[in-house]
């Protein structure tokens, strides 16, 4: 067998359709385009999503691309294994994490969450927005403490907002 003997499988290659080449071709008058209409005209290429001027499906159904929650809270995650950079009794905040090179400077504005991957063998004082239950248990078992930064939660309805503003403060 030689390179020149190689041929494609029978039926793998098709001859291109020769249109508009006389009566013998079998495609004479309209050249296989049918009678009139948009697809019979020259230069017509209709995209697959086009629905004849009707609002197309991808625009009618925006949720097919996924719902983007504008109120989603994005957390910067830190594992317990990264906290080995701190000495015993150290205070761990977003600023101290930046100093140790565990966070970027821009991440101090983000919400900080500590996850329980890894072990802690020293007492640390954490000040974070959120912490997983396993991470809290490991830190407290090592003699450390966790204090959560309170996140303001806005009232969900107008009625609740007005109720909070009109609530009398306790005087004693």
Structure description:
There is one protein chain. With 172 residues, the protein is α/β, with parallel strands linked by helices. The chain has a domain of 74 residues: Ribosomal Protein L15, Chain: K, domain 2, CATH 3.100.10. It is 16% helix and 13% strand. It is built from four helices and six strands. A three-stranded parallel sheet has the order 1-3-5. A three-stranded parallel sheet has the order 2-4-6. The protein is elongated, with a radius of gyration of 34 Å. The model has no long low-confidence stretch (mean pLDDT 87).
Quickly list its features.
elongated; 3-stranded parallel β-sheet; 172 residues; alpha/beta; Ribosomal Protein L15, Chain: K, domain 2
Helix count, DSSP H or I runs of 4 or more residues: 4
CATH topology of the domain at 75-148: Ribosomal Protein L15, Chain: K, domain 2
Number of strands: 6
- Rg computed from alpha carbons, rounded to a whole number of angstroms: 34 Å
Enumerate the spans where pLDDT stays under 50 for 5 or more consecutive residues: none
- Biggest sheet details: 3 strands, parallel
- Which structural class do the helices and strands define? alpha/beta
What's this, in brief?
The protein has helices spanning 57-60, 94-99, 133-141, 158-166; strands at 75-79, 91-92, 111-115, 125-128, 130-131, 145-148. By secondary structure, it is of the alpha/beta class.
Draw up the topology in text.
Blueprint: H1 57-60, E1 75-79, E2 91-92, H2 94-99, E3 111-115, E4 125-128, E5 130-131, H3 133-141, E6 145-148, H4 158-166
Parallel strand pairs: 1-3, 2-4, 3-5, 4-6
